[in-house]
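Worked Example 4.2. Consider the chain below.
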Amino acid sequence: MTRALARPLVTLAFVGLAVAAAGIANHELWTPDEPRVSGIGREMWQSGSWAVPRLTGLPFLEKPPLFWWSQVLVFEAFGRTSAALARLPSAVFGLASLFASYALGRAFLSREASLLGALVLASAWGFVQPSHWVIVDSALVLATTGVLACFARARTPAGWTRRGWLAGMYACVAAAFLAKGVVGVAVPALGIIVYLVWSGRLREFFGVHLFVGALTVVGVISLWLWRVWVDAGGEALHTFLVYNQLGRFLPSLGEYTGGHERPLSYYLVELPVDFLPWSPLAILAGLAGWRHWRALPEDERDGLRLLIAASLPAVAVLSLAGTKRGLYLLPVFPPLALLTGWWMVAGLAASGWEMRFARIWAAVAVAAAAVLAAAGLGVGIGLGASAGFWPWAVLGVALFAAAAWWLARQPAPTPAAGWLRTVALVCLGWAIGLQLALVPLDPVRTMRPALDQVVRHVPDDAVLNLLDPTETTRGLAAFYTDLRMAIVDDPAALGALAADGAPVYALIEGKRGRGDYAEFAAAGIPHRVLAQHVSGSKRELHLVLLEAGANP
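Applying the procedure from the previous section yields the following structure tokens:
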């Protein structure tokens, strides 16, 4: 444990890479988000047009294109696409976010606190999920953490070093916008402003750099918006700026109808759940900081100001938005994780109920990690995994047991060493669980078999018609096939396509007997079902052929 703490970057690289790489290559794209995001990335790669994200040929401007640019680079480097390659950018962004969090911590905190904070982040559920998932928020958290890390480092005296950190900060601000839009700029900017006001340094921050940096960021944003206008027109700009940026925050204006509308108190429950297993310790860290505030060294206290300013105000403001989702709080996870790492090292709960609770919770976290490591066995038994899966599942459990036994024998002379054992075991539990438990789940969750049937039955020169498809179905078709696609709004319009006797191929979805296929079948349009697939969640895809004389 002492050696691991003495070499924090090596430890972070080893543990972080193990968690980041686990589970990204052992299953196909899963609904709802992965097919849509991956389909956009594949279309961008195939078309060579980087300015406007498109799905089945139509502009898709919920988010700016930074994440899809990273996917294009990966696809181009390997010369092909796959679910694993589609997830690789998320894993890389997640791993890089750990190092950015460590850099942020080292501006104020010790090596031990920064390392523990980064590993707490690596093992928090709300961070693990998007860093193993095809989702644009993984790019956002790296950019926003980079903004804070560069800002914290820019406290150095005036000179080229400070100018370099400030330039890095503005570059990260531009990247944050290109990752998620206005929220990518607003969240770190809010934290920095609150910190500057709280610490009385607002006037010190003003300077020429603020004007030059803001001008640069606005220039980057304006350049991309101009390209959107040139390539897709003014309606596309309206969709991005009004519908998806303003409308998501204020859906009451009537523009946004995309869902995720939640009550004001939503994050009061969602944040503690997503930050598990460390949320109780984050609360203890806040209590300890409040109680011992005046006794802390000034540099340490200043660091806590930034961590608190970068997290709690963002949660409050995002709670005011009409649309909410656990993913939207991802940028506040690094500051909360570093706050937790600081508490683990500070030893401020040396006696009393806090120390007893911390010991009990450490045992709970290790027990949860053991459950994660054994999840492959449980899921395999429940779903009847193949014979070749079982040796690996047993090996995973044995590996966790051996690591737990070995770590328990290592001396822990300091609170940091003791907590490192706990956090390392939680990270190992995630790595083993992600690598093994997802394998038997894939046949239940994947929709890949339906698309394989599409490729087998539909000629390369035919058009695949999608009947009033969801974004998920559009993404599946775009990622797994090379067919030309057309979207048809209703069954009657689809039936009319077969009026001239030419064969018409259509992919139609449905769920539990309801949905588009049920409506299509009830319309009595002559067709033949060439293939169908039903996932474990009862999501259905039907490939049908419409032709003259086809039987329903």
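The two ends are 68 Å apart (CA to CA). Residues 1-15+372-445 form one domain. Compare this with Example 4.1 before moving on.
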